[in-house]
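Model the whole thing, not chain by chain.
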Amino acid sequence: MVRKNSSRTGGLEPASDAKARRVPMRDFARSLPMSLLRAREAVMRQFRPSLRSHGLTEQQWRILRALAAVDAIEVTELARMAFLLGPSLSRILRDLEASHLIERKLAKADLRRSVVSISAKGLRLIEAVAPSSEAIYAAITRRYGARKLAELQDMLHELERSLSELRVAEDQSAESGEFE
Amino acid sequence: MVRKNSSRTGGLEPASDAKARRVPMRDFARSLPMSLLRAREAVMRQFRPSLRSHGLTEQQWRILRALAAVDAIEVTELARMAFLLGPSLSRILRDLEASHLIERKLAKADLRRSVVSISAKGLRLIEAVAPSSEAIYAAITRRYGARKLAELQDMLHELERSLSELRVAEDQSAESGEFE
DNA sequence: GAAATATGATTAACATGTTAAATGAAATCG
DNA sequence: CGATTTCATTTAACATGTTAATCATATTTC
């Protein structure tokens, strides 16, 4: 029910032929991943200039904010909080530490782990950025509507929750395709 | 109204102090950007293994699908369609061309522009990937609910639309903060 | 129509995403 | 307790995101 038309057009001149859509599928531009990507980009476009004017990337800001919410935290837990993969986090922590925005020390009980915390300098930076960040968030909320925004967040969390129960289909080719 | 507590804690031992939150702000993990990021990641986690088994990245797949929907298209328009920045697109097109999945030629009327189209090999690849891709999308729709999914997409598009009218505040520090 | 300006596309440089492999330390097994 | 396995983190390698700069071609201006 998917393989619409097997238009094997042979080796034709690609631009001087029919202008009709070849493999339509589910109108690509309106797919869920694209909708989510575009919406997130529309939001981040509002924040990036402010962060950038303070020399911060989006991810660095996420880490500093996560650290500001706790006293100290292990790297793995920080990755979960800031929703970053280990390798990204590892690099960013190295740079933030070099900038003296965070501090790091080994866990006494387990030398594999290290514990990260924000520095006084990092806190000052957060306090410098927070006002414009809050103002932007408030402007977005005003524009879109606080009620609708809360509803959207609920639906996003529910999407995330329901997909967490869906096992990913690894080698689809070897399975019959039906799961449940 | 933002600068909650200016807890300039001096040069203290960062881990042996209070465990209370220092700069709470808007509970960071539930911010709109994080919600959108997490939701999108939950969705893409379903698709990536299938794409990967065909040697495709998410972005390469977006480009091929966009190209499959048209006969030929200029690079700038393709960037708009696939929602990619010029530099990313430029690199990916170079690689896709080297793999003979796309074809490229100069526009006769304007030698600055080039026109891209999908190749027969590219079409075959799409037809090979589409079934599992459609199956995954169908599974997501079943799980979350078709009605709710459509509603979510509407809300995302409305968010994107309403933010497009919000001018970004460049140098917040130099402005009085109110816009409208 | 030559100089200045604007535009389409690419390249450069640096940061992050993504998967695999490596490294070092802790836990487990025999 | 020594070998194996597991675990936390980092490094490696490659692809993309992001902004600035470059390059070639078009357009505009005088």
